[in-house]
């Protein structure tokens, strides 16, 4: 979502490239471009004005170290200011009661119900006993949607389809949660297409009835500057504890994410990055600032990998690589692990410097489909013994059969086999290097 802003900020900071010192003139030019970039991204005018003034004052007050260029120094200043703008440090959810209650709020269409499922899935992964509660009694099929999500992630859903009193449903659900010894209760509430008195009165009454530990305001990041105004109206009424930004994978300018924290003075706690139940992230202001400035986010990338990669599997793969026995079965297994980590373009963008390189490249989750089809069209013997496809009298006919079975061309099959062969050669060379085994071991763990 921040591609356009990242590009414009990069252009603004480039004005100091090659300069040997910071002056009022070159800082003024750079700051002016930064402000234009922020406003173009739909950042609140007062917020953009405040942050750029802070950047200007700090830049002019800096003593430039001999080893640090002015451009590098300003990048650090901008990074620090963006981090502060989005909250400074990560704020987790507070779960102190038994059971702890999380109340979801927001307009209809913001993604409350879907995010309720994602949050329940996230908490379940931490070995928590979670109960989802259907308190959206107005939107058609809202209860059914939550039940489908609950079934998908293996979390119980409490609903009273015939009861049209949201306050009573919430009370009954809390009593049921205590009886069933649930640790966390996530309450999905009704939204409207716009803020109205009936909606606000109902959710305020639900809040009083169940006394939640957390009230999360869910807002669609694609709403733009209106998201900030809506958040302020909800906060004045509910005094919510945190913000959830959904649809960060969409084509949006990102101004809401940069403005909302300053305007409502409440932390952004989570972000939604897709429709799948695992497509959500904890919000880290410093990591987001790094991504906006094209510096990548290696920490988040490693954390995602740790969530899906099993240590025993990593050791097994590492052993096969050391023995030069890595085959298509192993390669296919690794592809499945990578797919679990999330959107491919987002993952590549977390690698420092790669964001700019892939901004015009069409990388989607279907990128692995032809590769998977080719591997699945191989016989078990071929997957386990890649040499059968690398040469010999029968390799040509084998490749033709695989192409036909996978719906790809012989050239595509040849390219995959060639790339796999080159990868194995590289692994073999690394094994022969001094300390290669140890290096490979660390890398794959």
Can you walk through the features of this model?
57% of the residues lie in helices and 9% in strands. The chain has 445 residues and is α/β, with parallel strands linked by helices. It has three domains: 3-85, Four Helix Bundle (Hemerythrin (Met), subunit A) (Up-down Bundle); 100-284, P-loop containing nucleotide triphosphate hydrolases (Rossmann fold), CATH 3.40.50.300; 302-444, 434 Repressor (Amino-terminal Domain), CATH 1.10.260. It is flat and about 80 Å long.
Q: How does the SSE layout of this entry go?
A:
Layout: H1 3-13, H2 24-40, H3 45-60, H4 70-85, E1 100-105, H5 112-124, E2 130-135, H6 142-153, E3 156-158, H7 166-179, E4 184-189, H8 197-210, E5 214-220, H9 225-238, E6 242-246, H10 255-264, E7 268-272, E8 280-282, H11 285-292, H12 298-308, H13 311-322, H14 328-340, H15 344-349, H16 354-357, H17 369-376, H18 380-384, H19 387-390, H20 395-406, H21 410-432, H22 436-444
Parallel strand pairs: 1-4, 1-5, 2-3, 2-4, 5-6, 6-7
Antiparallel strand pairs: 7-8
Helix pairs in contact: 1-2, 2-3, 3-4, 4-11, 5-6, 7-8, 9-10, 13-22, 17-20, 20-21, 21-22
Mean pLDDT: 79
Number of separate strands: 8
Major sheet:
8 strands, mixed
Residue fraction in strands = 5-15%
Helix content: 55-70%
CATH architecture of the largest domain: 3-Layer(aba) Sandwich
Which tags fit this structure?
445 residues; alpha/beta; Four Helix Bundle (Hemerythrin (Met), subunit A); Rossmann fold; 434 Repressor (Amino-terminal Domain); 3 domains; eight-stranded mixed β-sheet; 57% helix; 9% strand; flat
């Amino acid at each position: 979502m921040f591609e356009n802003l990242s590009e414009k900020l990069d252009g603004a900071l480039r004005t100091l490239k090659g300069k040997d010192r910071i002056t009022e003139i070159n800082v003024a030019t750079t700051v002016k471009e930064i402000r234009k970039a922020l406003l173009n991204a739909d950042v609140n005018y007062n917020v953009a004005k405040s942050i750029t003034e802070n950047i200007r004052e700090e830049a002019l007050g800096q003593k430039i170290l001999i080893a640090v260029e002015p451009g590098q120094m300003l990048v650090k200043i901008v990074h620090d200011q963006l981090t502060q703008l989005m909250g400074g440090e990560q704020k987790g959810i507070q779960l102190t009661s038994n059971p702890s209650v999380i109340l979801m709020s927001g307009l209809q269409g913001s993604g409350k119900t879907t995010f309720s499922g994602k949050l329940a899935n996230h908490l379940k992964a931490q070995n928590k006993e979670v109960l989802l509660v259907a308190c959206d009694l107005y939107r058609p099929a809202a209860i059914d949607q939550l039940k489908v999500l609950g079934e998908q992630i293996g979390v119980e859903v409490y609903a009273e389809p015939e009861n049209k009193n949201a306050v009573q449903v919430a009370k009954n659900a809390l009593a049921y949660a205590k009886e069933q010894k649930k640790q966390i209760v996530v309450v999905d509430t009704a939204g409207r297409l716009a803020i109205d008195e009936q909606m606000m009165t109902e959710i305020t009454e639900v809040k009083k009835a169940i006394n939640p530990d957390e009230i999360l305001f869910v807002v669609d990041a694609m709403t733009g500057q209106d998201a900030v105004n809506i958040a302020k109206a909800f906060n004045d009424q509910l005094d919510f504890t945190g913000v959830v930004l959904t649809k960060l994978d969409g084509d949006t300018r990102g101004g809401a994410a940069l403005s909302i924290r300053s305007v409502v003075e409440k932390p952004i706690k989570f972000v939604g990055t897709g429709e799948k139940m695992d497509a959500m992230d904890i919000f880290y202001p410093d990591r987001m600032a790094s991504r906006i400035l094209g510096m990548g986010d290696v920490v988040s990338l490693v954390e995602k990998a740790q969530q899906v990669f099993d240590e025993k599997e990593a050791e097994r793969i590492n052993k096969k690589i050391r023995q030069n026995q890595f085959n298509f079965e192993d390669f296919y297994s690794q592809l499945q692990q990578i797919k679990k980590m999330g959107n491919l373009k987002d993952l590549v963008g977390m690698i420092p410097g790669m964001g700019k390189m892939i901004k015009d490249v069409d990388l989607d989750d279907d990128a692995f489909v032809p590769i998977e089809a080719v591997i699945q069209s191989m016989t078990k013997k071929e997957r386990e013994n890649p040499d059968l496809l690398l040469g010999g009298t029968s390799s040509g006919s084998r490749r033709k059969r695989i192409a036909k079975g996978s719906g790809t061309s012989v050239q595509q099959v040849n390219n995959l086999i060639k790339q796999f062969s080159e990868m194995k050669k590289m692994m073999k060379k690394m094994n022969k290097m001094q300390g290669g085994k140890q290096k490979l071991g660390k890398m794959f763990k």
